[in-house]
């Protein structure tokens, strides 16, 4: 019940979305090495999802994690400083911490996980090289306002800092009006990280990318990739470009699934309002409810998986070494088909405890 990705599809379903050219490319693909920057047609498809980027501004990776890891290693050295918004995907914090000093700026749970830009500005030092953010946020589902995001990018540009923006859940906003601009569209220096895994629900492809209009930096990232994967899987790159060309329909399908699921989750948490504090996410396919029980969320989650076979991720998984973070939350996924069975097992376990 804690899945972080949207419902996936079978290979045949994805291939059914391909045009004749891409279907033939997949069927006739020769399984040699691919280009380190990524398949040119895939890079063009990625660039098509941005307003200001071209194919030459895109570098493909084996998932988002490789992109995050290499970007931090290229951008940061000992003696540098980074600012990271918390809570977050663990590597967003731990990879920079292995390289340099890092300051955390926590989203405020008391203010609907708001990001205080003044606190970000206060955290910046003369040697700050990177500010790392993630919206829609993992695990909270928070989406900040577009004006704040644009102001954050401008703040970084004014100080010569790279904004590193993890945008893997973009496209799953409950209200499309709240969809943020992509960092690479807002700033020539910013890096936008994305992947087929989360919003598109295709983690098995293992295709991610960084888009950045600073091509000198992109060339440095490409050289670093020679020390990790060198190049991506050819079949995955063709399948990824099929998915990206059909992203509007895939994202609409996944948003519809989340919209269908949310009333089911609303009803579940309404029944157990004395046990949980529930708020639907602004975007993405995960939520971060609060557990009100006196035994603590870590014990609750351990007993739940042991006694009912229902897996949730407790707050300890998102514990930050940089900032105080809530200890009473857990992540639950809302983007998979047919959550009723898991919620029924969860509910039955809760009723037996009463």
UniProtKB/TrEMBL annotation:
Protein name, per record? Aminotransferase
Gene3D superfamilies assigned: Aspartate Aminotransferase, domain 1 (3.90.1150.10), Type I PLP-dependent aspartate aminotransferase-like (Major domain) (3.40.640.10)
Q: Output the SUPFAM superfamilies linked to this UniProt entry.
A: PLP-dependent transferases (SSF53383)
Please report the stretch or stretches of sequence annotated as the Aminotransferase class I/classII large domain.
19-334
Q: Which domain of life is it from?
A: Bacteria
Signal peptide range = none
Keywords, ordered alphabetically: Aminotransferase, Transferase
- UniProt keyword annotation of Transmembrane helix present: no
One example GO MF annotation:
pyridoxal phosphate binding
Q: Which InterPro entries match?
A: Aminotransferase_I/II_large, PyrdxlP-dep_Trfase, PyrdxlP-dep_Trfase_major, PyrdxlP-dep_Trfase_small
């Amino acid at each position: 019940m804690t899945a972080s990705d949207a419902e996936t599809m079978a290979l045949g379903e994805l291939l059914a979305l391909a045009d004749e050219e891409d279907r033939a490319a997949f069927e006739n693909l020769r399984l040699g090495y691919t280009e380190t920057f990524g398949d040119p047609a895939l890079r063009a498809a990625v660039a098509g999802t941005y307003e200001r980027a071209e194919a030459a501004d895109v570098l493909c990776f084996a998932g988002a994690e490789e992109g995050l890891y290499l970007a931090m290693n290229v951008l940061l050295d000992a003696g540098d400083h980074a600012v990271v918004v918390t809570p977050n995907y663990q590597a967003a914090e731990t990879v920079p911490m292995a390289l340099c000093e890092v300051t955390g700026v926590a989203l405020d749970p008391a203010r609907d996980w708001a990001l205080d830009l003044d606190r970000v500005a206060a955290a910046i030092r003369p040697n700050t090289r990177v500010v790392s953010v993630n919206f829609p946020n993992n695990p909270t589902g928070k989406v900040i306002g577009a004006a704040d995001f644009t102001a954050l990018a401008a703040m970084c540009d004014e100080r010569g800092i790279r904004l590193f923006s993890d945008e893997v859940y973009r496209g799953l906003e409950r209200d499309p009006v709240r969809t943020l601009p992509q960092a690479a569209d807002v700033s020539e220096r910013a890096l936008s990280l994305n992947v087929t895994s989360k919003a598109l629900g295709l983690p098995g492809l293992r295709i991610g990318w960084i888009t950045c209009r600073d091509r000198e930096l992109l060339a440095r990232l490409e050289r670093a990739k020679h020390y990790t994967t060198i190049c991506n899987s050819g079949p995955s790159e063709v399948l990824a470009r099929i998915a990206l060309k059909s992203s509007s329909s895939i994202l609409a399908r996944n948003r519809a699934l989340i919209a269908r699921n949310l009333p089911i989750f609303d009803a579940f948490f309404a029944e157990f309002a004395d046990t949980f504090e529930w708020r639907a996410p602004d975007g993405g396919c995960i939520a971060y409810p609060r557990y009100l029980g006196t035994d603590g969320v870590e014990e609750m989650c351990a007993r739940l998986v042991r006694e009912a076979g229902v897996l949730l991720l407790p707050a300890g998984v998102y514990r930050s070494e940089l900032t105080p973070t809530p200890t009473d939350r857990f992540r639950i996924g809302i983007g998979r088909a047919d959550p009723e069975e898991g919620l029924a097992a969860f509910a039955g376990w809760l009723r037996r405890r009463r």
